[in-house]
Amino acid sequence: MAHYKLRKAEPEDVTDILRLIKELAKIVEKEDQVMLTEKDLLEDGFGEHPFYHCIVAEVPAEQQKVEGYSVIGFAMYYFTYDPWIGKLLYLEDFFVMKEYRCLGIGSEILKNLSVTALKSGCNSMHFIVAQSNEASINFYKRRGALDLSLAEGWRLFRIDKQCLLNLSAEE
Amino acid sequence: MANFILRKAEPKDVSDILRLIKELAKYEEMEEQVILTENDLLEDGFGDHPFYHCIVAEVPKEKGTNGFTVIGFAMYYFTYDPWIGKLLYLEDFYVMKEYRGFGIGSQILKELSHTAVKTRCSSMHFIVAEWNKPSIEFYKRRGASDLSLEEGWRLFKIDNKIKNKAKKKK
């Protein structure tokens, strides 16, 4: 089994975090939609008020399967609020490089997130999954996740920047 | 048109906020699932690190119903999209039925849009129950797109019972 460790991301990890965000976006053929820069990630994650938190999975230099990269997985999360039950941990992105899958790293990350959620007084962890992503859906269901869209009929909506500008300028 | 003002919620508003949360939950037939207390709302919204923000809609005392002058609210917080950065997430949004049809909801949404633009959010996100046709129409009229329909997103949860089990596993 590969030796690896999980740790809180630090400012110097933003290059690897962005690389992994782009790798994950590439899988769904949306790499060109990643507008974020390392500078954004630095300001938004490591400033006075972090808008997100990250755990990274790191392997020692001698265990690298892909040259030059020791950070081989990450999870991005933040805290949200449910008006019925209070604080929630929201899992936004979660990715392990394909060369490092099936080694239990993903499971360990999820366990780490569960501990964080409980320690921070959260009642639940929420996340969205694309309905076409059967592998991920099964991964989560095996660990007890419930599909709220199926069970309770929730649909995700968006009002994009242009509409926000239109609405805020309306008389 | 009703006279009303919109303002940032203050600590003293937590009883009204909880009352309106329960009214909205009742409309969704889920009132018994509201376990949050006024104390939770106070600590979580008005402490060192607020987990949510609220706008409230208030009418003058003489226009109030049963002594209530806070007649609508919106609860929101900031989330993060790894492709485009900060988002404003609209969590709850409700105007008491006696005060509907006066443009209060539209004004709240306009205020939220303004906040989102000011804080450099790329987008506003929120979820709506698929059976809630009036709300879906309200949002669609204002340019909202249904990402669940267009992109197939489904919301999942892992709750505490499961998390506690996972924590105990070696």
TrEMBL record, chain A:
N-acetyltransferase domain span: 4-166
Q: InterPro entries this protein is in? A: Acyl_CoA_acyltransferase (IPR016181), Diverse_Substrate_AcTransf (IPR051016), GNAT_dom (IPR000182)
| Location of this chain's protein in the cell | Cytoplasm
Query: What is the protein's major site of localization?
Result: cytoplasm
Which Pfam families does this one have?
Acetyltransf_1
Broadest EC class? Answer: transferase
Q: Coiled coil: which residue ranges? A: none
Pathway entry: Amine and polyamine degradation; putrescine degradation; N-acetylputrescine from putrescine: step 1/1
Catalytic reaction annotation: an alkane-alpha,omega-diamine + acetyl-CoA = an N-acetylalkane-alpha,omega-diamine + CoA + H(+); spermidine + acetyl-CoA = N(1)-acetylspermidine + CoA + H(+); spermine + acetyl-CoA = N(1)-acetylspermine + CoA + H(+)
Q: What is this protein called?
A: Diamine acetyltransferase 1
Q: Organism, per UniProt?
A: Electrophorus electricus (Electric eel)
Gene label: sat1b
TrEMBL record, chain B:
- GO function terms (MF aspect): diamine N-acetyltransferase activity; spermidine binding
Q: Which GO terms describe its cellular component?
A: cytoplasm
Q: Which residues form the N-acetyltransferase domain?
A: 4-165
Primary localisation category = cytoplasm
Q: Which reaction does it catalyse?
A: an alkane-alpha,omega-diamine + acetyl-CoA = an N-acetylalkane-alpha,omega-diamine + CoA + H(+); spermine + acetyl-CoA = N(1)-acetylspermine + CoA + H(+); spermidine + acetyl-CoA = N(1)-acetylspermidine + CoA + H(+)
Protein's GO biological process: spermidine acetylation
EC number of the protein: 2.3.1.57
Q: What top-tier enzyme class does this entry carry?
A: transferase
- Enumerate the InterPro entries for this protein: Acyl_CoA_acyltransferase, Diverse_Substrate_AcTransf, GNAT_dom
State its location(s).
Cytoplasm
- From the UniProt record, give the pathway where this protein acts: Amine and polyamine degradation; putrescine degradation; N-acetylputrescine from putrescine: step 1/1
Q: Print the keywords alphabetically.
A: Acyltransferase, Cytoplasm, Transferase
What does the sequence similarity comment in the record state about its family? Belongs to the acetyltransferase family.
Q: How does it assemble?
A: Homodimer.
Q: What is this protein called?
A: Diamine acetyltransferase 1
Which species is this UniProt entry from? Electrophorus electricus (Electric eel)
Tell me what gene encodes this: SAT1
